[in-house]
């Protein structure tokens, strides 16, 4: 049997996420939306509607430059979140809060939640609330958090929201299961993971039964990020969780917007990789079309590209899912490329589909199914380079 036939037997159709998208998972999403409704009401009333009204033009073009875009989009998406929920009165471009919004913003947490206990997510949301004023002045959220809470506490919050929070289970599970599925074919496998950060993919993968044994099929794993401290933390994690992988893993600083410049990195050469992974990072690149076409070049025919997404949809449901990211300068640096890309930050499913098709990926699977993207906003896409 040829390698191509082997891979067909271990293909994209075998990736199963049905156990992740469960009633329990739905409850986690609804809880975060409920918690965010209180926090966002307080931010809005303190920083946007302190005088009882605010002017907002939904059609106003975003400014140039990430430092100007970040406060623009934070304010814009907060107002559009509240408007979509029916919590603002609008007269032209003048918005006023409803009585319900004012009352919720002033509610005691014990009354709103019915308990004095705080979830880890609520504590993280309140940390963002504490720096909202600085964000609306154009300061970077990560810098503000470090100034207020210190580096260690900031990274604890970051790891929780980006890796450990229950709704992120869908993202972490998808990339880990796709990696494991590729290794099940039993053939030498080259992996490039871009923006690998704290190692969420491998943290999840090592929990899959039999994964550690299947890592013998990894010929080379390119674990990359732009941050050396993040890679150091990931190396320590791998040393603890799966030390047998260290011999086949390279830790390299790679700028995803410059993938074609690394002529000395083996897994970034033409048709070098069997699998390319992006966990919570591909929406952050500056030139998405260039990055996707570079991935097409890097992948072998039949290779897979898997990446996680927050699928943009109704602002009244979606804004809590990007609250952390929208405080960061880096989240707003994208070059818009209509009709492929019309949104800064997270893309809609339609934008992702058009972008992938134009980069040479006609075959893809979307998790969850498109009809569930409002109920389950977190997931991902697995695309295949044609043979």
Order the strands across the largest sheet as they lie in space: 6-5-4-7-8-10-9
- CATH homology group of one domain: Vaccinia Virus protein VP39
**CATH top level assignment of one domain:** Alpha Beta
Task: Give me the count of strands.
Answer: 10
Tell me the distance between the termini. Answer: 16 Å
Q: If you consult CATH, what is the topology of one domain?
A: Rossmann fold
What pattern of helices and strands is seen along the backbone? Answer: HHEHEEHHHHHHHEHHEHEEHEHHEE
Point out poorly predicted stretches: 1-9
Q: What spatial form do the alpha-carbon principal axes imply?
A: globular
Question: Biggest sheet, open or closed, and with what strands and sense?
Answer: 7 strands, mixed
Cα gyration radius (Å): 21 Å
Helix content: 40-55%
Which structural class should the secondary elements be placed in?
alpha/beta
Indicate the CATH architecture of one domain: 3-Layer(aba) Sandwich
Our estimate of the beta-strand percent is 15-25%
How many separate helices? 16
Mean of pLDDT: 93
How would you explain this protein's 3D organization?
α13 links the parallel β5 and β6. It is globular and about 65 Å long. With 387 residues, it is an alpha/beta fold. Helix content is 43%, strand content 15%. The protein is built from 16 helices and 10 strands. It has helices at residues 3-9, 23-47, 66-84, 99-105, 109-113, 120-130, 132-136, 141-149, 151-164, 169-183, 200-205, 211-214, 228-241, 288-298, 315-318, 349-358, and strands at 54-55, 88-91, 94-97, 189-194, 218-225, 249-253, 273-278, 299-310, 363-367, 378-384. The chain has a domain at 168-311 and 347-384: Vaccinia Virus protein VP39 (Rossmann fold). The chain has a 7-stranded mixed beta sheet, sandwiched between helices. Strands 1-3-2 form a 3-stranded antiparallel beta sheet.
């Amino acid at each position: 049997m040829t390698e191509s036939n082997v891979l067909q037997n271990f293909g994209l159709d075998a990736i199963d996420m049905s156990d992740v998208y469960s009633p329990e998972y739905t409850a986690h999403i609804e809880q975060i939306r409920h918690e965010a409704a209180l926090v966002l009401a307080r931010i809005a009333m303190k920083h946007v509607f302190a005088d009882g009204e605010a002017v907002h033009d939904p059609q106003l073009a975003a400014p140039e430059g990430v430092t100007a875009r970040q406060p623009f989009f934070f304010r814009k998406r907060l107002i559009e979140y509240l408007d979509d929920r029916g919590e603002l009165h609008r007269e032209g471009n003048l918005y006023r809060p409803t009585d319900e919004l004012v009352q919720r913003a002033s509610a005691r947490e014990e009354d709103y939640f019915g308990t004095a206990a705080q979830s880890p997510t609520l504590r993280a949301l309140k940390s963002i609330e504490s720096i909202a004023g600085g964000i609306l002045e154009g300061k970077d959220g990560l810098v503000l958090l470090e100034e207020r809470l210190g580096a260690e506490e900031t990274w604890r919050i970051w790891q929780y929201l980006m890796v450990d929070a229950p709704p992120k289970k869908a993202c972490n599970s998808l990339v880990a299961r796709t990696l494991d599925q590729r290794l099940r074919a039993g053939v030498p496998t080259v992996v490039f993971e871009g923006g690998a950060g704290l190692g969420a993919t491998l943290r999840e993968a090592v929990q899959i039964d039999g994964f550690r044994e299947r890592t013998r099929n990894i010929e080379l794993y390119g674990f990359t990020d732009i941050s050396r401290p993040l890679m150091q933390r990931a190396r320590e994690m791998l040393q603890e969780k799966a030390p047998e992988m260290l011999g086949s893993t390279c830790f390299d600083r790679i700028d995803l917007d410059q993938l074609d410049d690394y002529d000395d990195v083996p897994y970034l050469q033409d048709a070098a990789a069997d699998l390319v992974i992006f966990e919570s990072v591909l929406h952050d690149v500056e030139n998405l079309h260039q990055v996707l076409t570079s991935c097409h070049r890097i992948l072998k025919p039949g290779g897979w590209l898997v990446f996680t997404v927050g699928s943009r949809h109704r602002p009244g449901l979606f804004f809590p899912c990007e609250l952390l990211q929208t405080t960061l300068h880096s989240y707003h640096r994208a070059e818009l490329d209509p009709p492929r890309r019309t949104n800064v930050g997270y893309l809609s499913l339609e934008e992702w589909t058009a972008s992938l098709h134009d980069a040479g990926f006609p075959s893809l699977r979307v998790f969850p199914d498109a009809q569930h993207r409002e109920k389950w906003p977190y997931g991902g896409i697995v695309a295949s380079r044609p043979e």
